[in-house]
Amino acid sequence: MSVFSRMMNIKKERGGVFALLLDPDRSSETSILALAEGAADVGVDIILVGSSLTVRGNFHAMVKQIKNSTKLPVIIFPGAHSQISPHADAILFTSLLSGRNPQYLIDEQVKGAPIIKSFGIEPIATAYLLIESGRYSSVQYMSGSLPIPSEKADIACAHALAAQYMGMQMVFLEAGSGAERSVPESMIESVAGYIDIPLIVGGGIRTPDDVMHKISAGASVVVVGDHFEKSGGNMIREFTAAAHPLTEITV
Fold this sequence. Notes:
About 45% of the residues lie in helices and about 15% in strands. By secondary structure, the chain is of the alpha/beta class. It has one domain: FMN-linked oxidoreductases (TIM Barrel). It has an eight-stranded parallel beta barrel, surrounded by seven helices. The longest helix has 18 residues, at about 100-120.
């Protein structure tokens, strides 16, 4: 079974998918591996590994160690084609559709596609939409692109529908790491009701209630990383439970 199919099965059975994002540039190797090792036991469904930069130069080694530490699917959330590793199960093959910088619309993708093919990892075609969050994010700075205003759900809907018509498998609404504000539920609800492909939502999600509201609004996958890197992994079980509203019903 493909990683994407596994994610959709979890969505159907549990009501939502909880993704733990690990960034090798933001946390120590010890803390990252500790989070990865305990992830399955506290209800995490998938692990994303990614970074806007790779300052430490240990990205590929960390992906390998994370994969060896867990039985969960490990998916690369790349900042560039240099962050493609043969040790992962899959990769979000993202295109920054909210921006107009050709480097992140198609250039990095052309450079990365042959690498992905040679490694034999599963690409999950994903439209990446930056949403304004009250803070100038790393992705915004690195990509040189403007985010979609958080109150302009119609613009997000148009971009998401374009992604669907282009044949992409998922749409990622991203407020950015450490965002002051997460993606509004009103925008999630509008986009989810406008397209027929699943939504990933991340950035600025700090409480289990935040997770619950994103899932209720229409998110299929909720991504949290920065919060746990700062808190040492406290309360992950509460977050994952909020992402799985059907679990109690089906047990």
